[in-house]
Known about the structure:
- The protein is mostly helical.
- The protein has helices at 3-14, 28-33, 37-46, 60-71, 84-88, 91-108, 114-125, 132-142, 149-164, and strands at 21-23, 49-51.
- It folds into 2 domains: 1-75, CATH 1.10.1650.10; 91-164, no CATH class.
- The chain has 9 helices and 2 strands.
- A two-stranded antiparallel ribbon has the order 1-2.
- The longest helix is centred in the middle third of the chain and has 18 residues, at 91-108.
- The two termini are 55 Å apart.
Amino acid sequence: MSIEFTKRAASEILNRGISAIRIKPDALKDAEKAITKDDVRALIKEGKIYAIKPKKNLSLHGKIRKEKRKKGRSRGPGKKEGKRGARIGRVWEKKIRAQRRFLKLLLEKKIIDNKIYDKYYKLSKGNAFADKKSMIFHLREEDGIKIDDNLIKEINEEIKKRYYGR
């Protein structure tokens, strides 16, 4: 058909503007021959048609501010809006995620079975435990599950590796 059609079709496929679409010089004849979007998709897959990376404009003022904040400027009490709790936020989310990760690893290590896992998952969802430590205490006392300190350390190390990359 035409290069205009090819560029328009490629822009729709790649979700970019027409001006961001590039065709390699050696593939111009193939681009002219493309009749359907499937033909254009094939050219994209071969790498003959591509979209340039989008620009990320940041003003000079913004760059300077970013550098200063990296040094610790503009982060004092005068810049803070809202209460401390609002700035920290999501305390419950952090707590519940820690409990769920711990339960998941206990299940994977076959220290608890599915029935106990479900029970404690629902209890933790219902905010039955103040923190992970109280959940461990409950597991030991109520269900008689043997969780020693070495096992807790091992699981915590596993959590650090798996979720935080440390």
